[in-house]
Amino acid sequence: MNQAAGLGLWECLFALQSRWAHPNLHGMLEEIIQNGQNLLEENLLNENGHTLDAELKACQVEHKAKLCDLVGMMKENKTPGKSEGQMFPISNRYVEPKVISDRHFKKQTHQEHEALAAAGELNEYRLQRRLKSELERIAPDRLFRWCFRSRRLPLSVMVSGVAGVGKTTLVQKFIFDWATGKHYQKFAFVFFFKFRDLNTITEKRSLESLICQTYPHLQDKLPRVLEDPKKLLFIFDGLDESKTDLKLRRGEAHELCMNPGDVKPVTVIVASLLKQTLLEGCSVLLTSRPSKLISLEAGVFHRVASIVGFLSKERERYFSMFFGDERVSREAFAYVRDSQVLYTLCYNPSYCWITCMALKPCFIARAGRPQPTPKTVTQLFVSYVTHIMANHTQERPEPQGMRDTLISVGWLAEYGITNHILVFDLKYLQDFNVEFSPFLTGFLVENPQTNDSSQVTYSFLHLTIQEFFAALVHYLDYKEDKFRDTMAKARSCKEGDYEIFSRFLAGLSHPATKMPLEKYVGKFSAEVSRKVIGWLSEMTYEELQSPEEPEGKRRLMNVFNLFFESQNSQLVHDVMGKAAHMDFSDLYLMPVDCTVLAYVLSCCEEIQCLTLDSCFIQNEGLERLRPELHKVRELSLLENDLKDPTMKDICKALKHQNCRLEALSLQGTGLSDESCGRLCSALSQNSTLRHLNLSANIFTDRCAEDMHLLILTSPSLTEIRLGLNDFSPEVEKQLKSLQRDGLDIHF
C-alpha cells in the first residue's frame, strides 16, 4: 500500500512478539527482515507461476494432467470380499495432519517405538499446549517458504513421521494442490518418485533416464525442462524403504553426479540433488520414518518437519467421514475418547482406520446385538481380525484352513519383525506358503510398482498388524525353539523394538481376549499362555523400580502396559506385593499412562507410597486415577498442574469409606480459595489423614474462614503445611494460633 502502512504492520507484529513469543511469529518477522524485498515477487510467483513459452506451457499442462490422474484419487484399503478398495477424490476425504518443525530429530529417533510408544509422546493436551507456545506449525503450502530454524528459503526439506501417520498422503495432496494450481506455482515441473519403486532398479541410471522412464511424455522436451533448475521440485517418498543407504554423511567417499546424463546408482542421484552438485538450485522433498534419520547428516536439509498426526478435531472428523451416520460416529468417537488407550492410538491415521473397522460391528447393531467393545490394544486388534474373518468373502474357509492361513502369514510376519523386513516380494510369500487371496487383503496389501505392474511387493497394512500376527503365530503354531529364541530377543532388546510385540503376546494370554478368535481358528496353545504368564510373573518389582532416571521409570511403565494388556489381576497382585511403593516423579505421564497405572493400582490390596511429583498430571489424568487413590497411604502430587477442578477427585478419595490416606502432598498444584471449602468438607468426613501439604499454592485471606474450619474439624491431622501462599501476616498469625498439642502448623 505505502510506507506508512508497512511500518504500521511492522510495529503491530513487533509489539505482538513481546507478548506472544511463538516460533511462527518469529519466523514471520524474520521473513520480513531477511526476505522482505522478495516477498511480493515470491508470493505472486507461487500464485501465478512462471511465464512459459507456448511449447513448454503445453508440456507443463500435460504433465500436470498426468500427475492429477496419478494422485487425484485416494484409495481406501481393500475391504475383504470386494475386488477393489474404495476410491474417492482426495479433496473429499483428506484430513490434514499436524506438521511441526523439528530441529533435533536425531535425539528422538532411537527413543521410541515407531508404532504405539510414539503415540504417548503425542498426547493431545501436551501437543496442543506446545503448539500454542513452543512448536512451529508448518502448513503444507509453507514447506518451502522461509525457515525460521535455518534462516533461509529452504531448497531441501525432510518430512518425517512414524508408520501410517500420513507421509505419503500428505505428499499426494501436496502434488495434487500443485497440479491444480493451488500452491507453489513457482515450480514449473514437479517429479514424484517412490523409493519402493526405485528399489526395483538394480542397474545404474542417469537422472534423465529415470525421469523419462517414469514420465515418458517429457522425453522430447526434457533438456528444456531441466535447463532452469530453480523451477524444479523433486519428491522422493519413503526413504526408510530404500534398500541402499543414502550416503549423506560428511566424509563418506562416493562420486556425486554433476550432470543429468551422469550414470550412477539411484541413491547417488538423490544425494547429488540434495548436495546441489546436480541441478544446482533445484528443490528436493524427502519423506522417511524417524528411524532412518539417525544415519543422515542433518545439515543437508534446510528444513526438517515432523508429522505428528491428528489432534481431537481431526480424529473426530475422520470418524465422521468413516461412519457417515452422525449418531454412530459420535457414539464410536465418544467411546474411543473415553477409553484413552484406544484414543491415543488414533493420533495415527492408519490406526484411525483400523480402530473404526474394529468398532464398526460394535456400534452398528446386527439383529439388535452389537459386539462387546474392546478395552485393550490387543482386544482392538482381535476385534479387527475377527471382523475381517467374519466378513471377508462368501466362501469362508473351514477353521483349519483359516488357521493354516494365519499360521503362514504369522511366520512371515515374525520373520519380518526379527529381521527388520517390512516389504516382501513374491519369493517371501512362496517360502512361507502364503497364498494371496481376498481373505488376506484385510492384513496384507499389494504394492504394484509404478513403472512395472508385473512386479508386485507385499506389506502388512500397518507395522503393528505385522507385530500382532508375529505374536499370534506362537499361540497357533507353538514351536519351542522359535518361541524361546524370540523371547530371548525381546528380553535383550533395550531399544523398544519388541515392545508392542510383547504387549500383544501378553494380551493374547488372557482367555476372554483370545476367545473371539478361537471361535474361528480353534484353541490357542496352553503352553504359550503358561510361558507368557510365567515370564510376566518372573518380573521382580524391586528390580523394576530402577534408580535410573528416567529410563527405569519409563521401563516400569512399559511393564505396566504389559500387565494392562494381560488383564490378569492375580498376576499383577502377586508381582506387586501387598504394599507397593511407586515413584514416577519427573516422568511425563499422559492420561493413557494414568489409565494403565489405575489398572495396576486396582489389582493391589494396598499402596504404601505413590509419588507422582512433576508428572504433568492434569484434570483428565487424575480423574483416571481417582477410583484407586483411597488405597494409597502416602500420596504426593507435588508440582502438577492440577488446579481447582481436580479437587473433586481428591475429595472423593478422602471421603471413601475405606480411605487409607495418611499423607497427602498438594504442594505447588495451582489450588486456590475455591478448593479450600471442598477440602474442608471432605476432611471433616475423613479419619485417616495425618499429614497435609498445601504449600506454594494460591490461597489468600478470602479462604481464611474455610482454612480455620479445616484445621479445627479435621480429627486426625497432626501436621499441615501452608507456606508460600498469599496469606497476609495477620492471617498467618491467626492460623498459626490454632496450633495445639498433636497438631503442627508450618508456614
Description:
The protein has 747 residues and is of the alpha/beta class. The chain has three domains: 49-73 and 98-309, P-loop containing nucleotide triphosphate hydrolases (Rossmann fold), CATH 3.40.50; 374-538, no CATH class; 554-746, Leucine-rich repeat, LRR (right-handed beta-alpha superhelix), CATH 3.80.10.10. The protein has 34 helices and 18 strands. A seven-stranded parallel beta sheet has the order 12-13-14-15-16-17-18, with no helix packed on it. Strands 3-8-4-7-6-5 form a six-stranded mixed beta sheet, with helices on both faces. Helix 32 links the parallel strand 15 (663-665) and strand 16 (691-693). Helix 31 packs parallel to helix 32. The longest helix has 26 residues, at 23-48. The protein is globular and about 95 Å long. The protein starts with a helix and ends with a strand. 42% of the residues are buried. Residues 79-83 and 104-123 have low confidence and may be disordered.
Query: Which class do the helix and strand fractions yield?
Result: alpha/beta
Per CATH, the architecture of the largest domain is: 3-Layer(aba) Sandwich
Q: What is the domain total for the residues?
A: 3
Total strands: 18
Instruction: Give me the number of helical elements.
Output: 34
Helix content: 40-55%
Identify low-pLDDT runs.
79-83, 104-123
The CATH homologous superfamily of the largest domain is called P-loop containing nucleotide triphosphate hydrolases
| End-to-end C-alpha gap | 61 Å
Q: How much beta, percentage-wise?
A: 5-15%
Q: What is the average of the pLDDT values? A: 84
Report the CATH topology name of the largest domain. Answer: Rossmann fold
Spatial order of the strands in the main sheet?
12-13-14-15-16-17-18
Domain NACHT: 155-291
Protein name: NACHT domain-containing protein
InterPro entries: LRR_dom_sf (IPR032675), NACHT_NTPase (IPR007111), NLRP_HD2 (IPR041267), NLRP_innate_immun_reg (IPR050637), P-loop_NTPase (IPR027417)
Keywords: ATP-binding, Cytoplasm, Inflammasome, Inflammatory response, Nucleotide-binding, Repeat, Ubl conjugation
